[in-house]
Structure to design on (307 residues):
């Protein structure tokens, strides 16, 4: 039990390192900037102190990769294990900012029978893990955007949320781009809907009549002319949610693998973009502003005007 152990409490800008002697005495404590110089200094110091293993709360990431590449044994500690151990070491660790790093180092010293050592991954495995993380992030982002869009549609235009099974499916997003408000779909009939479905490659089992019945059976949401509150001089634009549903559907289309085929009616797309021009007092989205920035800007303007 004379091996030295260390614990690293990770943070976005500055990590905390605690090194313990084999008998549990604290040998060193330091801050480690999350920079190339800081990480290089960390690796040198761990080698100088001949640390046998380092405990860390996450099993992957840049710091873990750098430690493994440097030949330093890394112990993965699950967050639940760390939380359960805090009370055990509370009196010994005090209340310093490095308390979690101390607990991690103690676990690496005394609880190796409950922990596992990480193994360095090859280049292909790292690349695959990076792609997997990126995909998970995109999926989470898409789900969050879909939930926001669904909530707004349920409040202002339930029919737009219910006509198709999934509000973030390609056909549903194409429908919202073509018919971004109840007013836009007011004159929609079975024949026009059938043409829209054919142009957008709809492969569902519902007939145009059934889909139209879903749309008409949905309750009427509450809408109001946002443009009149923002720019009173313009009275010809669509209802309040027109620009918002269009922008969210556009961002959902660009997030994740599902895409619309881009064959929507051009006049409708130009009408939707026209509503956004009046709402923003500037040009439509075309690389100038991300949809989320557009939404945030609009919400600020509404708040400023007492909306």
């Amino acid at each position: 039990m004379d091996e030295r152990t260390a614990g690293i409490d990770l943070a976005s800008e500055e990590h905390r390192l605690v090194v313990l002697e084999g008998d549990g005495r604290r040998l060193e404590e330091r801050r480690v900037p999350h920079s190339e110089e800081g990480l290089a200094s960390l690796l040198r110091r761990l080698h100088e102190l001949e640390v046998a293993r380092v405990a860390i709360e996450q099993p992957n990431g840049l710091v873990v990769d750098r430690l493994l590449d440097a030949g330093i044994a890394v112990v993965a500690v699950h967050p639940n294990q760390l939380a359960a151990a805090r009370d055990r070491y509370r009196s010994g660790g005090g209340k310093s900012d490095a308390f979690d790093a101390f607990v991690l180092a103690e676990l690496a010293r005394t609880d190796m029978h409950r922990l596992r050592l990480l193994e360095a991954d090859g280049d292909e495995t790292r690349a695959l893990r990076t792609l997997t993380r990126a995909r998970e992030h995109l999926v989470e982002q898409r789900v969050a955007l879909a939930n926001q869009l669904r909530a707004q549609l349920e409040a202002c235009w339930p029919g737009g949320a219910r006509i198709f099974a999934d509000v973030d499916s390609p056909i549903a997003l194409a429908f919202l781009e073509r018919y971004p408000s109840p007013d836009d779909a007011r004159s929609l009939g079975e024949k026009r809907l059938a043409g829209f479905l054919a142009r957008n490659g709809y492969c569902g089992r519902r007939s145009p009549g059934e889909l139209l019945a879903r749309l008409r059976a949905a309750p009427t949401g509450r809408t109001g002319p946002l443009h009149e509150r923002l720019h009173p001089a313009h009275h010809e634009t669509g209802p309040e949610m027109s620009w918002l549903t269009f922008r969210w559907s556009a961002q959902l289309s660009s997030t994740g693998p599902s895409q619309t085929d881009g064959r929507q009616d051009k006049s409708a797309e130009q009408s939707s973009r026209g509503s956004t021009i009046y709402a923003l007092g500037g040009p439509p989205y075309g690389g100038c502003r991300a949809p989320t920035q557009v939404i945030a800007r609009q919400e600020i303007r509404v708040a400023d005007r007492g909306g």
Observations:
- The radius of gyration is 28 Å.
- Residues 205 and 211 are 10 Å apart (CA to CA).
- Residues 4-120 form a domain with the Nucleotidyltransferase; domain 5 fold (CATH 3.30.420.10).
